[in-house]
Write a structure and sequence with these properties.
Rossmann fold; alpha/beta
């Protein structure tokens, strides 16, 4: 019997409920590619991938591109464009989209960056966690939730890895997140595995990787590793580790 939360989550492509514990047990020993194939087989066109076109994004994008080619079924890729990404990220997005022939949907805020700044100021500069959370809600969480609703997504995959933040260490391969299923094919991968996969498949590195960045988001809240801090600690001025996309909450809350 399904628990009440699982019973309220989206059903598979055949209208059958998804048993969370059984799905986790099935997914745990599988490879990342096999986990993606499971999601596509289970949810059909209701399966999508989210990407930031960040330092490690090429791995899952390449896997999804190969999955789409093998199955003959395109996988929708959702890119949350905050309007504040570094120029290098926009160039990288163009490069990967063309090379991997991605079925790309760009999710953006309901109001423009200029409108947001006129109304709320440069929220990332105040040093207040509340302002940063509002920024992330307006530029990242709400745009993603709208895209997921618009595309009728039931399950979305992301490239999060357990070693990245305290919150991600507690994640499982499949979790309910804001009313949908969230799949983490690379949850147990190390940086070394990511690097070797990109090398094996001759995938281009993000241009900022060569400048010392191990993670990159918006231009104003990302920086290179400096020997003292590295990884997600370089993001958001040290105020937060998560932007909210991978945190629980109500789907569409605040929209």
């Amino acid at each position: 019997m399904l628990s009440a939360p699982a019973a309220s989550l989206p059903r598979d492509r055949h209208g059958e409920p998804v048993d969370l514990e059984a799905a986790r047990a099935l997914l745990t020993p599988l490879s990342a590619q096999e986990r993606l194939a499971w999601a596509q087989n289970t949810f059909g066109p209701g399966f999508a991938l989210t990407t930031s076109f960040g330092i490690q994004s090429a791995v899952l994008l390449h896997m999804v591109s190969e999955l789409a080619e093998r199955s003959g079924q395109p996988v929708q890729v959702i890119w949350v464009d905050t309007g504040y990404l570094p120029p290098e990220t926009y160039h990288y997005a163009d490069q990967l989209s063309e090379r991997l022939r991605l079925s790309l949907h760009v999710a953006q805020g309901a109001i423009s960056p200029a409108h947001m700044e006129a109304r709320h100021g440069r929220l990332w500069e105040s040093g207040e966690v509340g302002d940063l959370e509002r920024y992330h809600r307006l530029r990242k969480v709400e745009p993603l939730d709208r895209a997921l609703l618009e595309l009728q997504v039931r399950c979305w995959a992301s490239g999060v890895r357990g070693s990245q933040t305290d919150h991600r260490r507690a994640m499982q391969t499949l979790d309910p997140v804001r009313g949908l299923w969230s799949l983490r094919p690379l949850l147990s991968w190390s940086r070394r595995e990511v690097f070797y996969y990109m090398q094996e498949h001759a995938l281009p590195q993000h241009p900022l990787f060569e400048k010392g960045y191990s993670t990159v988001g918006d231009w104003h809240s990302s920086g290179p590793d400096d020997g003292g801090i590295s990884g997600r600690a370089t993001r958001f001025g040290g105020l937060k580790q998560e932007c909210g996309i991978h945190l629980p909450g109500l789907m569409g809350e605040g929209i």
